[in-house]
Structures are given as C-alpha cells and as structure tokens.
Amino acid sequence: MSFNRAQRVLLGVICTAFVASAEPSRLRKAQENPQVPMGFQSGPDPGATYGGNIIYRPDSNRIYVTGASNGNYFKSADAVDRNSNVAADTTSCFLGIADMPSADNAGTPPSWVHAQQWETSVPEACNVIHVDQNPVNLPENNTRIAEKLYLLGFTSNNGLMEPLRIQSAFPAEQYGMIMDVDILKNQPDSTDFTTTFWGGRLLQDGPVQYPIDMTVDDNGNIYVVSLQTFETAPISRNTRPTQVAKQMVDPLLTPYGSEYNMLIEQFLYDNPGYDDGVGVPEDPSNVQIDTTIVDNWRKPFSPENGSGGAIVAGVAYLGGVLVVVGTTNGHSQVFGNELAKSMNHTDTSMDAFVTKIVPDSGKYYQFVADNGAPAAESAQPMHKRSATSFMSIDYKDDYVMGMCYSPADPDNFYLVGTTEGQMDRTINQLVQGEIHAFLMKVNVWTLLPAWTKQIGGDPIKKDVVRGLACAVTDDGQDVYMAGIVENGGSLSLYQQNSFGGDDIFLLQVDAGDGRLVFLRQIGTSGNDRLSPDGVATDAYGNAILMGNTDGSFYRSRQFDQESEKSDDVFIMSVMRGTGDYKEPQVPDASESAPSTATSTTTTEQPSGETTPSEQEPADDAASTVEQGLSDAETATNEQAPEPQQPQEEEHEKETPSEDPMDQLPAPAGGSLSDAFGDKPMIYTNIGSVEHPHEEEEGSPKSRQRYGLVMFFILIAIVGLITGLLAYRQMTTGDTPTDRDAVLGYLSEFDVDDIDLKQSATGGYHCSYTNDLAHGINARAVSREGLFGPMGFSPKSGTTNDPLLQIHGQNSHAEGEIHFSDEPELDDLSSIGSGIGTPGRHSTDAALIDDYDGINRPSSVVVL
C-alpha cells in the first residue's frame, strides 16, 4: 500500500503526536505510583537541628534519619521539657525512625515511631547512618532485635564515648566515633521500639580525624573512610575547604586543618553482650558501653612528595573491592593521576579521583606484581583499571562531594560534585569562575565515564550551584542529583527562579544515557540547605529529600519568638518522572508573626506529643488529591491528619507556553539534544512546577478543570475534522485533468496533428499523427521550412520549443509525450512522514541534520 504526499504528511503528524505523548515504560511507572507529594518540618524548637543522612528501607517502608541538634525536638518525651532552654555551644547526635505514608494515606507526613537524642557537654554530630541486617553481626538466637544501626559521627574530649578513649601517642583534639545501636521490639509482634546503645568504637588515630563515610561488605566487615590532619590549631570556618565544610554537618564543630590525608580502616564486629546468644540486656536503656567494634587494619594514603592533600568523599563495596572517591590537588598512582600531574607541575587544581582498595588487606588494588607475575590481589579479572582521575578540561577546581549506586546495576556508580570549570564536554562553559554542579556515571570495571551532566545558575550573576548528594532508584533506571543554589541564585536557564536566600535543587536524569527528565529549584524566603547525604528514593522511585531551613517549609513560624529563629529539619518527597512536590508554606511578607491567628493546629512530635503551632485556617471537608494517571484517592482529616504541613489549598504554578528545552544552554557545536540525548521528551513540565493540589469534587476549581478538559477535547475533534477536510481537498486537487482541458492547452501551440489517449496508470498519452509523426509540422512549415523549428540550434541540439524540450527529456517510443500525476524522481526523495527537516533528501552519504547537528546514516528514520 502506497501513500501520496498528502497522506504521508497527515500520517506523520498523527504519528508525531503519539510518539511525543507516550513512552510506555515511564507512563506505566506513573500509573503504578500510588504516592502523592508529602512534606514535614520539625519545630517549634528553642534549638537548631541539622540533618546529616537519610536512608529508606523498602522492606519496612521506613526512613532513618540522623544529624546534630542542640534543640529538644528529637528528645524522648520524658527526657526534658521541650520548651526548655538549651545550651548554645553544644550539639548532640539524634536518631529518628518514621513510617512513610502508604498508598491508603498517601500525602500525609511521616509517622515517627522512634526518636532519641544523646546529650553531652561538647559539640557532637552524626553524619552517616547504616542499617545492618546481616545475620553474621546479630545474636545466634535473636528474637527481639529488629535492626542493628551504625551511626558514624564526630566527638571530642568528654564526649559521648569518653569511657572508651585510650591513651594515644597523639593528643587527639577532634576525632570520630561509630555508635552501635540495636532497635528492640518491645514484643515479638509489636511496633513499639526501644534501643540498646552498646557503645561501639572511637576513631582517634591522629590529632584530628573526621570520619566521612562507611560501608559494610557481604561478610559483615565494616569500612570507614576519614579525613586526617596533624594541624591541631583551630582555623576560621571561612577558610576551611568548601568540600570539607559540607561534610562537617554541624556548623558548631570546631574546624581544624587546611590539608588532609585519606585514612581507610576495616573493623570487625565483636559484641560481648551477644555472648548469651540473645543480645537483650535486662535494662536496655541502662547498659555500660563497651568496645563492640574492633579494628583489623588501617591504611593512610596521601599524595607523593607532599604534592598536596586528599579529601575523601565516599566509599562503596562494589565488584569485590572497595571503591573510594574524593578530591586531590596532588599526584600519585593511588589517585590515578601520577602521569598527568607529574608532567604538568603547574597544575595545582583540585581534581576528582577514584581508587580501588583490596578489602582483605587495605592495599592499593594492582593487577600485576613488579616481577610480572599475577599479584595475589588480582582476584577479580573483570577489573581493567585500578585508579583514575577526572579533571575539567580547563584545569579548574573540581570537588567530588559523594557517590551513589544501585544493587540493580552493580556495574556502574555515580559521582556528584561541584566544578569551577567544564566537566561536561558537550556544553560550553558560560562564564569563567562560576561554580556548577555535575553528575557523572562511571563503570566499575574500567573506571571510564559513560556520561557527565553539568548544570549552572545565571551566567551573568555568576550564581553558585553545588551538587551535594545523589541517589539511584531501586530498579537502576533513574538517578537523582540534589544540592544547593546559594544566596538568591537561580537556575534561570532552566526556567527555575529563586525563592530567596539559599534554595535546594533536584535533578532527575535517565541512568542509561543521562537524558534530562526534570529539574526543580525548591525553597522558602529563608535559607534552605540540603543535608550532606540528604537524598534517598522510595519503593516507587520517588525522591525523598532532607535538609534544614530557617524558613516556613511546612509550618508557619512566629518570627518574633526566639524558638522560631533556629533551623528546623524538613523532609519532603518529589514524584518520579514529573517533579511534583508539595508547595512550601507561604510565609508572611514581613516575616513576622501574624497579628491574629485564625486557628491553632498541632505539630506531632516524634514521641507522640503535640505542641501548638500557628497555621492558616484548615478546611475540614474531605479533599481529593489528584494523582496524575492513577485513580483519585480520598482522605479526610480524621483518617489522615497532616499536622506538619499547611492546610490551605496548594497553588499551582503556570506552565510556560514555550518549550522549556529551548531555554537550556546549547552544547558546543550542536544543540541541546547533544547534551541530553535524542529520545523524545514526554515530560512537558520540565521547566515548570506543577504540583498536585487538593480540591473538593464539584467545587468551582474542579468544574473549571473539567471544562478545560472538555474544551481541549473539542479542539482536538475540530482539528481532526479540519485535517481530514484538508486531506480530501489536497487529494481532490490531484485528480487528473480531463481530455478537453488538455486539448485546449495544446491548441495554444503551433501543432495540429496530436491525439490523446487515456493512460492505464492515470493521465493521458499524447501522440503525434500524420506528418508530425515524421517530424513535419504542417502549421509551422510555412515559417520554418525544412530547417527545423524556430530557435533550434544544430550545433547544440537544443530548442526552445516546449514540446520538443519535453520530448528530449522523456523520450518514449513513437515520439510519445507522457503526462502523469506521479511526482518526478527528484521529488520522491523529499517525500516522507512530514516530520523531518524540510529540504532533507536521500543520498548515499551521511545525512547532516541541521536541527540537532548530528551525523546520521541515511538508513535512519528520524521520528
């Protein structure tokens, strides 16, 4: 079955509409996602709380959070009066466990099932939490231990685990700790929890040690990477390296040092309290702490010849080895840049590094020994490279801030960080000196990057955008990068605006090719900052963000009260694929307490207590929450209270009419598709923020929405009818001309002996008869005689006679001239679906697509 030009154009338009509006895998995920955006904010609290790390456990649908606080919010109910004053110069580690909303109560805040805060007289903070369910590290006859937790953090003299401190050759000023905590169920089938704090391990292997990250291998062995320095004089917080400041979590911690070494340690778990096989003391809340984590090996690494420092950022157990990432301005084989740095001694910039460590020994992973024989540590033949470094092409400072991976994709991991240069080779750097965020996918075995994505702020204002953390969905198909847009900056190139002060941002890309899915800038009129490891993903692949704010994310503040001037922790979800999130509470323009409070609601504390908090009037009627493609779910205030979040109806931002992808920075020598891929974008709200909003069924807003839907349906029907009529008109215009019209046209020429016959393929055959069949035109012979037609050139063999010109181009037997409705061969090459670039023709050479600047083979059909 063949189609003419009009049919192909119409089919092309229809196919384009379907391709642009559907991508089965992602639409299916949207349909299967029963969640809607939720939000939570702690407080009011007389002290500040800073988030450190958030993780999500799909088996229990719970989040686990830790950080530092000098407030009362995460203290147990019987520990202290929540409104009591707190010491301004101390902070404590806290632990919070909360159930995430299920499909039945989607959109409600997390429900806290446990909270605990360990108070001391010195500044302490926790920055990493790890849930260990490996039975190797649990009692043999365990029945009540639900989960084992390790909290990694910082402490100092007279801190939480002072009894475990040992005499050292180095008088430690600031050191680390691993806290060993068991979560106990009060009854075998109970959901109530208590904790046993066994102690753990102090990390005091030098004058100053900052533990940064930890991981556990399949055998239950614990690995910790730390920053180490011998500079014991405190320094100004403003002079501390930017990447190190990010890792400190708590701004009250005393900073030491300006140049650091990398320290890697392995620990084994050995708890004397488990000797009875049960591991449950008589009084879990009153246990004498002990060293339950013992060291096995310790390896420091630093650049050669004092050429610089090394700032470690993360560690993961992948491919049977430890993959360690960080930043260095020195050079050595361990950091993968020995050749590059040694050849360019003038390059002192900070560069990213990735190195592999043998878990059993802590040695640098090598494949061949010095004598040429295979080394014992080369037990993984799939590994093709031991270490590597990544640097911007203009040799600017590049900092790795963290890493992430998914067990579903064990062959790859991701680096997140900041750069002052150009890490992404596919885009032009807009302004020298501005700071961008970058995300890089790296292969575990080859340590080669698969793709790199880089985003920045306003190029004129030189906005600072820092990538801090990343997370991969459980299926390994999507990656999130989150970070901070500082000091009123904006991602204006991506149609995102500042909310005032520091904001957070979230980027989602396709893990396969790095194609952009959405980018969001989120914040309040205050300062909102992401926690150092403040992004996770839930069972449906939605992003969960944690940070701290001095604004009004999900509760109203009374800024004339001292308890409202400190930082709160916020937790929020952002929907996969769409970027929808719950709008923050809109603060008063004056940032002061309302003169009159219209209603008073309560904010749930982790312990179950409530404290008054001023809110906007709450609507008690049942509300309907739109869930995209999924069915609407109804929740009443009695069934699903939302005390932490504003009760007023969420507003929706308008979607810009122009294509948001056109606003993104174009790559060097090409277009946006070079930077983010060629797949059709199906998320039409990339540059906008469209959020689910609650509305009553039958309300004016609801009726208006249904009216708009019907209006667009009517427009679609009218458009289809118009297209069909246009198609009919176009095909009617192609009807062959009748015989009289052709004869009338030919009568204008000096030709008499012509006969027309109907052609079987359409059109007519024009035949010369009588003398004209032998080349003699009776009408013209009186003027031209036997010398040929007027204008004939015997030298060139050409003529300006239109009939003979046609005859020369399309010679047929017996002097026939063939008229047909079929297009010329040259025109056939430009007939297609109507979707491609006008003027594109079929050739044997590679096609140059002027739209995206990509060379494509001629056999490729671009839809």
From TrEMBL:
Statement: the UniProt record of this protein carries the keyword Membrane: yes
Region: Disordered, residue numbers: 579-680
Low complexity biased stretches: 589-614
Keyword entries, A-Z: Membrane, Signal, Transmembrane, Transmembrane helix
Tagged with keyword Signal: yes
Parts of the chain that traverse the membrane: 706-727
Signal sequence extent: 1-22
Domain of life the protein comes from: Eukaryota
Protein name: Uncharacterized protein
